[in-house]
């Protein structure tokens, strides 16, 4: 299966087009996340090194951010947020691996990023209902004044859209430019852009996770 950025292997299922390459690569990312996390946490040393050290540095930085943003109830959602971050990080970087059109980032497919955004939106409302109850959750749409209700409802629709399109656009654009550079300048410049893209993949995973964290912070408030 030969993959090119922005093109997908599509099959028809129940009258709908399904991007099979995205599904295969999503499974691959999930497998990689499991392998890396298990390898990093198995037989943990008192003084970490190598993979364990790298994973612990990232996790500790994220946990500190979660605690500061979410407050005392941060443990209710921390496992989901860490899963978001690791899945998006590995997805972003997968398409940057040197391969003869065999690998691509699942996050360069809008279906993936929109799915992640919708799951995060569902989680935000579920956590809000769990911690605040139906009455308070509905009431916040009418704050600070009743006429703001339409604006507040519209915001709930725009949040997942901005999450999805921001991640999708950044990853797709980066991979397209990298593919063009490999054809125009086979050596030198593509390597520099590849290193930059690796950093961008990390930043985009962090931004998505922190934005979802900020949305959850309001949902966890029960007073």
UniProtKB/TrEMBL annotation:
Classification via Gene3D superfamilies: ATP synthase, F0 complex, subunit A (1.20.120.220)
Task of the protein: Key component of the proton channel; it plays a direct role in the translocation of protons across the membrane.
PROSITE patterns per UniProt: ATPASE_A
Protein keywords: ATP synthesis, Cell membrane, CF(0), Hydrogen ion transport, Hydrolase, Ion transport, Membrane, Transmembrane, Transmembrane helix, Transport
GO CC annotation terms, alphabetical: plasma membrane; proton-transporting ATP synthase complex
Biological process, per Gene Ontology: proton motive force-driven plasma membrane ATP synthesis
Signal peptide: none
Taxonomic lineage from the root: Bacteria, Bacillati, Bacillota, Negativicutes, Veillonellales
Source organism of the structure: Megasphaera vaginalis
Listed name of the protein: ATP synthase subunit a
GO MF entries: hydrolase activity; proton-transporting ATP synthase activity, rotational mechanism
UniProt membrane topology term: Multi-pass membrane protein
Family: Belongs to the ATPase A chain family.
Compartments in which it is found: Cell membrane; Membrane
